[in-house]
Write a sequence for this structure.
């Protein structure tokens, strides 16, 4: 209480300090005056009287100083003094400070960028109410070994009826829909959701309302809820947007609400939501197309829910033949929404670890810079200690400078992070599920602050303790020739070893990843991606109701695309290779029937006749499809060489192939041709087995147009769009890309990791080299006299050169050994991404060791040469 | 403290505050008056470095035990007059009691009964 009052009085004095000071001065003057007058009255001569009065009073300056403590905040002010002094010193050494701040910015910026990346993709809670209670339900087919299967409408309704541990279950799909309007046809990303989905996720529309009960019933009014971004860009954030109409897939839909920007579901690119119609009479039990999300009742664990789902699946399996091999799995919703979650985990670990290692190198480097500077300042510190500054006072001074450096580095680091995040944002697929933007936000700033504080601990404390080790006597006595003691040099060397070791780990990781990318690029694709342009088309059932209309469109589009100037072949296919979409089927020879699940796994593509020539896939035997293989003729198939070998040792022409799809459908084909193997799903395992069937016999609404142009394909994009538009002006043409770009994108995860690791390792290497150079140059400068003596005693320049470089190399060698051992221990965490190279590739390890030693020698050579030019006479006389 | 010139009787640490408060108990005074009063009433035994009053006066004001006001002396000089506050009186009583106990304790050690 009285402490509060005292602080208050102190504060009241704060603004009137000069007045208070003047008053005190006046009061003291009057005191002395009164004393002097009394002395005169007592008979003293005037001069003597004043002298005696002043003597009795004491030193007014000191007393005023003491009095002032009553109206100052002493501790705060000393700190401010330290700060101002530190800032002045740093400004004085601004070249040095700039290097330190830039170095810190590199380390802090890198960690902040990676943290923000990990935060958005893996850490930040999903933007729903109590997201921990949300689980995603997959179906698993035990026969076909499918783990992430979807559910049918019947499955959903059965679960809603029988599950007791869920408050509710909702279904969703992400789709692309055609939006027609005055701006021409375009495709929008939609979420098809059941009527209860918004309520289940616990997010309210910011405007209007969500879907009412029954909105997902067959024949319900067509309604749509739009996202905040869509509302802003298409409707200029019109508050009266509710009630307006959007033409989706050529049906008018009424806008009933706007969802807030934070609502990300099921994809970050989802622009609007429309009901997913649940019609159990129209959809078969085995038609499993729905993703299902459930909200657990409070207190229910995911494992309990999983057990209940299994029990329900077992009951359904007894009741329905279509559910015989089906069970249900419960996974965290985030893992299901983010379709790259299994890559992102190890990728984040690798990138996070590399950023952290760079951060350590940075701190070591700055610590070295601080040490070097503190050695120069030994004299200053010794002098201040001799004048009575306590050790704590000196440590505080040095730490204050570290704080200043770190804060500047933190600010610069945040800016750097913002820049690198904008680059990262361009490199990750926009449909990858994340919460929040890839930008420096509040979380990132908090993290920046934490890292900044950590950096002070890492780089500031050691030099502060070292630099203030109390021994003023010897330091002052030795004059300027100080700080070159073995203790200091050991600290320096330790830091250099740490830097080189860390660089070695990063270089090995980067080299292994680069090697993997190189090996992946060498994998024979089986097709020729160069010179092929592709585009995506989706034919809606309401405009192309039957196979006849679809087929007519196919014919027309292929014909017009093939007629484009410079096009040597045009074709259509349902799924592009290496594009993460593949229909898996089971295939077996009709002569040797097998039970479900026992057939050969194959990728089924529905292609037009020219597909093989457009893709550059050689036809090895037999023929491709022709105009005669139409819906009236017997079904024919082309198989890949691998499938042919597995089926019957290659001699498969005219045999009958049975293809069973996951929904249980089964069809027979006569094999008419064998195509060379090619890649579709992966580059890492064995080539895919392919079953190719004819678009003329099973036309698909979902398709890609391919044109091969011996000239550059990119300029053909406009012509290809125009060709499609001439057939159907209402049809959106999207994903117009070259096949080479598709393949490039497929390698993006490995390539991005390799690139990030390479950048990080080069940064670390450069920092380490700067560190080595600095230390070496510094030690040469300090040992000038010693070198002078050696040369005076007959050492040759070459010997001095060897001495200095040799010392650097010994330190470097220790770092390399430590680093390679560390790399051997750490790089196996990369093994998920490695391909064609061993995590312990001796060539890589040897190359990294060689590179590091060569760089170390180079970094020591420049100072060593300077040392060897020392003129012994000058060096000795300078003292 | 080490800079204080030798006085005839060293003040016990912390007693200066008590002496000032005691001096101001009856009437308000300026700094010079306080110094004179302490010297004279102690029979010249307690000779404080006069200037050291001023840091103490500032401290006591900060604690809320004294208030100060500028006024004119009988000799027509401007001087700051200090006055004890009720909180200051309470503090003085507490310090006197503590001091009495201390003296009594010392006396018992020096003159064991």
């Amino acid at each position: 209480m009285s402490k509060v009052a005292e602080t208050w009085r102190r504060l009241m004095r704060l603004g009137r300090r000069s007045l208070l000071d003047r008053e005190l001065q006046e009061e003291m003057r009057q005191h002395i005056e009164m004393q002097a007058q009394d002395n005169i009255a007592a008979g003293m001569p005037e001069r003597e009287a004043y002298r005696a009065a002043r003597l009795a009073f004491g030193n007014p300056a000191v007393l005023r100083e003491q009095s002032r403590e009553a109206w100052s905040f002493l501790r705060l002010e000393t700190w401010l003094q330290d700060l101002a002094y530190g800032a002045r010193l740093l400004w004085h050494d601004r070249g040095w400070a700039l290097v330190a701040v830039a170095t810190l910015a590199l380390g802090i910026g890198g960690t902040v960028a990676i943290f923000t990346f990990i935060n958005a993709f893996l850490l930040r809670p999903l933007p729903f109410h109590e997201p921990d209670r949300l689980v995603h339900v997959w179906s698993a087919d035990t026969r076909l070994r499918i783990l992430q299967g979807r559910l049918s409408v019947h499955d959903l309704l059965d679960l809603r009826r029988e599950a007791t541990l869920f408050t509710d279950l909702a279904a969703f799909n992400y789709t692309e829909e055609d939006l027609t309007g005055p701006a021409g046809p375009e495709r929008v990303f939609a979420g098809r959701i059941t009527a209860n989905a918004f309520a289940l996720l616990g997010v309210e529309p910011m405007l209007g309302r969500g879907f009412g009960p029954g909105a997902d019933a067959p024949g319900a009014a067509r309604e749509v809820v739009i996202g905040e971004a869509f509302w802003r860009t298409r409707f200029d954030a019109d508050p009266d947007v509710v009630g307006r109409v959007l033409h989706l897939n050529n049906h008018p839909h009424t806008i009933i609400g706007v969802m807030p920007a934070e609502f990300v579901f099921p994809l970050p690119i989802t622009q609007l939501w429309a009901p997913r119609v649940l019609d159990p009479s129209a959809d078969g039990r085995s038609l499993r197309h729905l993703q299902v999300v459930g909200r657990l009742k409070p207190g229910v664990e995911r494992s309990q829910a999983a057990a209940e789902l299994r029990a329900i699946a077992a009951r359904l399996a007894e009741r329905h033949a279509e559910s015989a091999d089906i069970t249900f799995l419960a996974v965290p919703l985030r893992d299901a929404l983010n379709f790259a979650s299994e890559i992102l985990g190890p990728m984040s670990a690798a990138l996070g670890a590399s950023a952290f290692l760079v951060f350590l190198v940075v701190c070591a480097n700055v610590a070295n810079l601080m040490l070097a500077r503190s050695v120069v300042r030994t004299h200053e510190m010794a002098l201040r200690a001799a004048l009575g500054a306590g050790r704590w006072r000196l440590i505080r001074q040095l730490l204050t400078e570290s704080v200043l450096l770190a804060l500047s580095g933190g600010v610069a680091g945040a800016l750097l992070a913002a820049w690198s995040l904008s680059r990262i944002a361009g490199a990750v697929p926009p449909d990858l599920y994340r919460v929040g933007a890839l930008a420096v936000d509040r979380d990132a700033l908090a993290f920046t602050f934490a890292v900044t504080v950590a950096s002070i601990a890492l780089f500031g404390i050691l030099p502060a303790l070292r630099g203030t080790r109390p021994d003023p006597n010897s330091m002052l006595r030795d004059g300027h020739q100080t700080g070159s003691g073995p203790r200091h040099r050991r600290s320096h060397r330790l830091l250099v070893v740490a830097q080189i070791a860390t660089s070695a780990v990063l270089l090995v990781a980067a080299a292994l990843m680069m090697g993997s990318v190189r090996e992946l690029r060498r994998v024979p694709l089986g097709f020729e991606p160069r010179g092929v342009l592709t585009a995506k088309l989706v034919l809606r059932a309401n405009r192309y109701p039957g196979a006849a209309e679809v087929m007519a469109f196919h014919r027309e589009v292929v014909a017009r695309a093939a007629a484009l100037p410079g096009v040597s072949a045009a074709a259509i296919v349902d799924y592009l290779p290496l594009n993460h979409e593949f229909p898996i089927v089971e295939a077996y020879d009709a002569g040797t029937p097998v039970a479900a699940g026992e057939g050969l796994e194959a990728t089924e593509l529905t292609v037009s006749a020219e597909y093989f020539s457009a893709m550059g896939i050689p036809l090895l035997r037999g023929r491709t499809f022709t105009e005669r293989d139409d819906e009236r003729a017997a079904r024919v198939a082309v198989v890949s060489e691998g499938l042919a070998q597995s089926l019957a040792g290659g001699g498969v022409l005219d045999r009958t192939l049975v293809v069973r799809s996951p929904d249980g459908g089964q069809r027979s084909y006569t094999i008419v041709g064998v195509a060379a193997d090619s890649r579709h799903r992966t580059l890492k395992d064995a080539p895919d087995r392919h079953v190719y069937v004819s678009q003329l016999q099973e036309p698909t609404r979902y398709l890609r147009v391919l044109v091969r142009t011996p000239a550059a394909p990119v300029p053909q994009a406009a012509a290809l769009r125009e060709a499609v538009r001439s057939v159907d002006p209402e049809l959106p043409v999207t994903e117009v890309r070259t096949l080479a770009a598709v393949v490039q994108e497929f390698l993006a995860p490995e390539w991005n990791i390799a690139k990030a690791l390479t950048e990080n390792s080069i940064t670390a290497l450069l920092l380490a080299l700067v560190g080595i150079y600095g230390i070496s140059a510094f030690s040469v400068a300090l040992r000038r006299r010693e070198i002078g003596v050696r040369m005076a005693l007959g050492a040759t320049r070459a010997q001095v050169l060897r001495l200095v470089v040799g010392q650097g190399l010994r330190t470097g060698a220790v770092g390399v050994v430590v680093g390679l051992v560390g790399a051997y221990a750490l790089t196996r965490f990369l093994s998920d991404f490695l391909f064609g190279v061993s995590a312990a590739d001796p060539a890589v390890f040897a190359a990294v060791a060689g590179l590091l030693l060569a760089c170390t020698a180079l970094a020591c050579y420049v100072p060593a040469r300077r040392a060897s030019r020392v003129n012994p006479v000058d060096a000795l006389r300078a003292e | 403290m080490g800079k204080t010139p030798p006085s005839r009787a060293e003040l016990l640490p912390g007693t200066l505050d008590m002496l000032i408060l005691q001096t101001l108990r009856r009437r308000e005074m300026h700094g010079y008056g306080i110094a004179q009063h302490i010297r004279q009433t102690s029979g010249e035994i307690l000779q404080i470095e006069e200037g050291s009053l001023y840091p103490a006066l500032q401290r006591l004001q900060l604690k809320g035990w004294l208030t100060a006001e500028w006024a004119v002396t009988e000799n027509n000089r401007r001087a700051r007059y200090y006055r004890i506050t009720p909180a200051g009186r309470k503090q003085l009583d507490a310090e006197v009691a503590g001091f009495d106990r201390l003296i009594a304790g010392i006396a018992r050690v020096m003159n064991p009964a």
User: Anything to note?
Assistant: Residues 86-110 of chain B form the longest helix (25 residues). The beta strands of chain B are 29-30, 66-72, 78-84. The two ends of chain B are 36 Å apart (CA to CA).
